[in-house]
């Protein structure tokens, strides 16, 4: 079966990898004019945040990442504004957001690609044609000079936890903000990063080893209340749209794409 996957974010990339493993002939197309928002993700997850089917999907996804070496630690060095005590808390995981992503085979608007595929999977993320809410986010990238802890969390106020994650020993991702517009997301992330420095969150890398910082931003399609993240929408008998993961794409998308691959594989 020949499959055209539209979008090279975490959903499209997961389908491409899993579909190829299942014997599908997969081609990935991405429009170079559109941002691949998955690269801006922070990707911290915890199975205890989910229940029922979503919990099973999260655990399947973590096992998939683990098998590829993309998963960072299962313990967070955890601090809080409530106490000076710092403790290790199990059950937190971080995923390298870039490692699972595939390079597109075709760089173009998908509507310009020959219409001769058996199946089209539209994993367009925030570029979907749905009139759902878009949520902008930004993450700070910091050079750690090889002195970073794998996963750090700081409870800086009620119901708000800041994270710093290091996947490779050299680069720390700090964030990430969320806001109605890109400008607000970047502004909030700058404030959050400055707060992280003041709290010592980034300083836990090791004093004197906090290097230059940059920022990357993206936008998510947020499912309305009552709509399952990553819901499938069949547009015709050979075109399916994967919609609206919001902030849980890296937690659930691979498992949902594995289920779709099983559904469409002859």
Structural features, described:
The protein has 266 residues and is of the alpha/beta class. It has a single domain, classed as FAD/NAD(P)-binding domain (3-Layer(bba) Sandwich), CATH 3.50.50. A 7-stranded mixed sheet has the order 6-5-11-12-13-10-14, covered by helices on one side. Strands 8-2-1-9-16-15 form a 6-stranded mixed sheet, with helices on one face. Helix 1 runs parallel beside helix 4 and helix 2 packs across helix 4. The chain is globular.
Q: What key attributes describe this structure?
A:
35% strand, single chain, 266 residues, FAD/NAD(P)-binding domain, alpha/beta, 24% helix, seven-stranded mixed β-sheet, 4 helices
Topology:
Layout: E1 2-6, H1 10-21, E2 25-30, E3 44-45, H2 52-68, E4 71-72, E5 75-80, E6 83-90, E7 93-95, E8 106-107, E9 119-122, E10 133-143, E11 151-157, E12 160-166, E13 171-179, H3 182-199, E14 213-222, E15 231-236, E16 239-243, H4 249-264
Parallel strand pairs: 1-2, 1-9, 2-8, 5-11, 9-16
Antiparallel strand pairs: 3-7, 4-7, 5-6, 10-13, 10-14, 11-12, 12-13, 15-16
Helix pairs in contact: 1-4, 2-4
Please sum up the structure shown.
The chain has 266 residues and is α/β, with parallel strands linked by helices. It has four helices and 16 strands.
Taking the sheet with the most strands, its summary is:
7 strands, mixed
Question: What would you call the quaternary organization?
Answer: single chain
Question: Low-confidence parts, pLDDT < 50 over ≥5 residues?
Answer: none
* Form type: globular
Q: How much strand content do the residues show?
A: 25-35%
Number of strand segments: 16
> What's the order of the H and E elements?
EHEEHEEEEEEEEEEHEEEH
Separate helix tally: 4
In spatial order, strands of the major sheet run: 6-5-11-12-13-10-14
